[in-house]
Amino acid sequence: MTSLKLYSELADIYDQLYLHLFNYKQDAEFAARIFNKYNVRDLLELGCGTGHLTRFLGDLGFRITGIDLFEEMLAIARQRNPDMEFYQQDMRDLKLERKFDCVFSMGRVFAYMTSNEDVENCFNSVANCLNADGIFLFDNFFAPHFIKNLKENKEITTEVELKDRTIRRISKNSWNLKDGVTFNWNATYQIETAGDVKEFHDDSILRTFFPEEIKSFLERQNFIVMDVFEDLAAFTILARKVG
């Protein structure tokens, strides 16, 4: 069962923790090279979270509209990016009044599209938000890496020291495999302030993908895959809407 407390009750913890876990500047520079190559400036960001990546891209001259499922995340994103627009929406059912040159999603947000129906609805929704020949850039967990390397129930501890508190995440994975190559991600967050420790639990189901699997879904929604950028545990797809 997915609870997703990290993105609602713990939005401020997410904001501080993932600033140290993600290299937003590097992701922004990678995306910006592609956006510049295809001369796109008006962008829709899916799963914008608390707006760290939005800010980096905004500083590089891009106009961004951000959507996220959680209002708690958007409240922080709006504070960080007062010059951008943000809406609380579901990426599987976008309802926006205009279209964009590019839709993008980074940070493996797409892993929450755990069913085939989720994937189809998301791609259809993205297609409806794009101008003719618009591009779609998004990253995914790489299934072969997880099949080979996921160690069930092994605890992984990540700790971030801040000025006023310590944030500790203790997580473990186990196979789910209900729909595609999915796994359970169970995390405990400990927030320690002046010796006082508060603890929260969060459970999610995440999906990994094969590149060819994603290509097949995209083609069903009239996208052409233009490039695939592979990393160790993730890959990024660049696709163009046909017509």
Say which CATH homologous superfamily of the largest domain is assigned: Vaccinia Virus protein VP39
- CATH-derived architecture of the largest domain: 3-Layer(aba) Sandwich
Helical segment tally?
Answer: 7
What's the average pLDDT?
A: 93
User: What is the count of β-strands?
Assistant: 11
The first-level CATH class of the largest domain is given as Alpha Beta
**Percent helix among the residues?**
25-40%
Going by helix content, strand content and strand pairing, the class is alpha/beta
What global shape is seen?
Answer: globular
The unreliable regions are none
**Domains counted in the coordinates: how many?**
2
Cα Rg: 18 Å
Main-sheet strand order equals 3-2-1-4-5-11-10
Oligomer: single chain
Descriptive terms for the model:
globular, S-adenosyl-L-methionine-dependent methyltransferases, 2 domains, 4-stranded antiparallel β-sheet, alpha/beta, 243 residues, 7-stranded mixed β-sheet, Rossmann fold, 11 strands
Q: Could you describe the 3D structure shown?
A:
Helix content is 30%, strand content 37%. The longest helix is centred in the first third of the chain and has 14 residues. It has two domains: 154 residues, Vaccinia Virus protein VP39 (Rossmann fold, 3-Layer(aba) Sandwich), CATH 3.40.50.150; 62 residues, S-adenosyl-L-methionine-dependent methyltransferases (Single Sheet). With 243 residues, it is α/β, with parallel strands linked by helices. The strands form two sheets. The protein has a seven-stranded mixed beta sheet with strand order 3-2-1-4-5-11-10, with helices on both faces. A four-stranded antiparallel beta sheet has the order 6-7-8-9. Helix 2 crosses helix 3.
